[in-house]
Amino acid sequence: MRAVIQRVSAASVTVDGQIVGEVGRGFLVLLGVTHDDTVEDSRVIAGKLVGLRVFTDENDFMNLSLSDVGGSVLLVSQFTLYADAKRGRRPSFVSAARPEVAGPLVDFVRDQIESHGAAVATGTFGAHMDVALHNDGPVTILLETRLGRLI
What we know:
Strand 6, helix 3 and strand 7 (about 120) form a beta-alpha-beta unit. About 25% of the residues lie in helices and about 40% in strands. The strands form two sheets. Strands 1, 2, 3, 6, 7, 8 and 9 form a seven-stranded mixed β-sheet that branches. A two-stranded antiparallel ribbon has the order 4-5. With about 150 residues, the chain is an alpha+beta fold. The radius of gyration is 15 Å and the shape is globular. Helix 1 (about 40-50) packs across helix 3 (about 100-115). The protein has one domain (about 1-145): D-tyrosyl-trna(Tyr) Deacylase, Chain: A, CATH 3.50.80.
């Protein structure tokens, strides 16, 4: 499982001209799922991102977590995080999990984030989405799990 986590002051996702999810201060998380990802990978990613200390404290140090600042998460499924563009000009997406595998795991990540007390908004799984964000910093963190462990 791969996650691109961007610290934002605001972010939203629009489908067919309608905003389907939006957050203020917090994270925009682009989440990719591969074939052998598990519930444990979902648990690890969710726990890590809620606990990441990348928000600034009163001394302007990155010491505060999403929980500390009362932040929210905009979670957007993105199969293209598993694109392979090593050969040719058209990426291959064979490493991305099929929707019937990826969808439930993305939902489980959402549920896990919520279980840690953070509000979560989402895009629409499988839809063409327009994502807007105000990147704060910018701060961008890449996380990847394999077999329930961060790599």
